[in-house]
Amino acid sequence: MKPDLFEAPDYYNLDDLLTEEHKLIRDAARAWVKRDVSPIIEDAAQKAEFPKSIIPGLAEIGAFGPYIPVKYGGAGLDQISYGLIMQEIERGDSGVRSTASVQSSLVMYPIWKYGNEAQRQKYLPKLATGEWMGSFGLTEPDFGSNPAGMVTNFKDKGDHYLLNGAKLWISNSPFCDVAVVWAKDESGRIHGLVVERGMEGFTTPETHNKWSLRASATGELLFQDVKVPKENLLPNKSGLGAPLGCLDSARFGIAWGAIGAAMDCYDTALRYAKERIQFGKPIAAFQLQQKKLAEMITEITKAQLLAFRLGQLKNEDRATSAQISMAKRNNVDMAIKIAREARQMLGGMGITGEYSIMRHMMNLESVITYEGTHDIHLLITGLDITGHNAFK
Ligand code: TGC
Ligand code: FAD
Description:
It is built from ten helices and nine strands. The strands form three sheets. A four-stranded antiparallel β-sheet has the order 2-3-7-6, with helices on one face. Strands 1-4-5 form a three-stranded mixed β-sheet, covered by helices on one side. A two-stranded antiparallel sheet has the order 8-9. It is α+β, with helices and mostly antiparallel strands and 392 residues long. A hairpin with a 5-residue loop joins strand 4 and strand 5 (190-196). The chain has helices at residues 20-47, 55-60, 79-92, 94-114, 117-129, 241-275, 287-315, 321-345, 357-367, 374-386, and strands spanning 134-137, 153-156, 160-171, 178-184, 190-196, 202-203, 218-229, 277-278, 281-282. It binds 3-thiaglutaryl-CoA and flavin-adenine dinucleotide. Residues 98, 101-102, 136, 138-139, 145, 147-148, 171, 239-241, 244-245, 247-248, 250, 321, 370-372, 376, 380, 391 line the site of 3-thiaglutaryl-CoA. This is glutaryl-CoA dehydrogenase (ETF). One of its GO terms (molecular function) is flavin adenine dinucleotide binding. One of its GO terms (biological process) is fatty-acyl-CoA biosynthetic process.
């Protein structure tokens, strides 16, 4: 892979809106990605391996629980800092950002928000350092966009719960130490349970043959009569709103992360276009290529503004789920379109692993599907503005 020469576009001087702390956090994450992710990520993706060696680095830049209070091992930062960290990590690779999103928003967040003090003390500090890695089990083979239909369930057996079922498409599952699993009780109400590796009947087979997020490990969570101690149930929230609340936090991070992938594609294509000579001129001098680049920077700038404003609203605890959906949907769509255009600008070189663009493009096919598909987020906006539910 070519050396990482990334220069971040900031067409509307958005840095002026950031605090010094935001910039320090962002720049530290950016430098870490350049130093520790870029040199190894193409190889990891080609081999379809999650590069576990980067776990301590992710913890060091605050990517595990950026907004979780310091007393639980988190970084105690605001939501814009969280977004900036996700942006920089996904600039490197969406799969690496996935690992951080899951750990922070889908594992640490529910334990922090819905867990009791003993659960927070037990799990959060180890998750913050990466000593323990987590996964989040909501999706099932027959229930993806419609998680309310889940069939994974647990029965009260007096001194423990007995858990049965299967989760599919679970990021980090093959190596997770703990899994936050959503399952129905005997009355059909959804609860979160923390399942630990080593519990009898709990297995995590890996899903192979992915053309997307190849540097992220994806798998199943299988439960066959797993005895889960009663103290592992998250007591402070139940119902579908509990897992959906976690998704709000992760979708927010993705809205920022996708900007990183888009920035990397744009920056790579711009540099290439200035250097690549055809018909005696740099291809950057042709109108057709300028149209692509001009539209890319326009869309990136719009996405940055959307994410920044959403970050302000989230800091004030005023961001609605529908606002988060709009940003996730828009920004991932923006990134995937930029990746496709940027790939073409590199001609044949664009399909090789010498450049990051094709990897971003393939990764974004997952990002546009997980955490609510492109269609689902449109329907969330539709419901929000019309009051009519078009899901069912
Ligand atoms: P609905 O009747 O609308 O809602 C049920 C209850 O949930 C509440 N609620 C929310 N609460 C918090 N945040 C949200 N975003 C919420 N959306 C809804 C709602 O108020 C209600 O509460 P209550 O108290 O009245 O019961 O539910 P529905 O069954 O009609 O479904 C709505 C729909 C389709 C929007 C929802 O099911 C959905 O978002 N589906 C998409 C599923 C999804 O996103 N799955 C993601 C799995 S995790 C993942 O992909 C991780 S990828 C990780 C990575 O690698 O980065
Ligand atoms: P389906 O729900 O079957 O959807 C298929 C198609 O139908 C889509 O185009 C969808 O938009 C459309 N559709 C569905 N319902 C409607 C409707 N009402 N109206 C119109 N169109 C509709 N899940 C987890 O729980 N944890 C994870 O860590 C996790 N990580 C993932 C990692 C990867 C790499 C991938 C690919 C997925 C991951 N997921 C995870 C699962 C992800 O959230 C689901 O794939 C996603 O929610 C869609 O579900 P599905 O794949 O079953 O598609």
